[in-house]
Design brief:
Helix content: 55-70%
Strand order of the largest sheet: 1-3-2
Structural class: mainly alpha
Number of strands: 3
Order of helices and strands: HHEHHEEHH
Radius of gyration: 20 Å
Amino acid sequence: MVGTKASTKAPPSLLYMIKQVELVVRSHLDELLRPAGITALQYTSLTVLERHDGLSAAQLARDSFVTAQSVADVVRALENRGLVRRERNPRNRRELLILLTESGRDLLARHAEPVRELEERMVRNLTAHQTDQFRLALSKAWHALS
């Protein structure tokens, strides 16, 4: 077989694959959240506040994986919609804390099931053990770079 070579393409890099997953998840989230009038980035910030209410803008930016400028825009939009509120930190009067409002909590509750279904769809072809291992691997990868 002169001139024939077995094609041995390298698989895509993990970074490329992670970005592909991120983009498709964000696209689905944006579509799912469009009727509520919020973006995936705004939703992410709300879920961060649901887990750790009363964060500073800097803390929210870090936990939401965005810049301080981006989080300022997100918080302003969410505050205008009545989904979050800001109040002075009693321990540091110069700092404003961002808190979820009842409307913000209601929006998260309304979208909990569709978001859970999206996550289930993402791991549908994995066993429960593989899903646990996937979660652990992602956590370890994140900690290695943080």
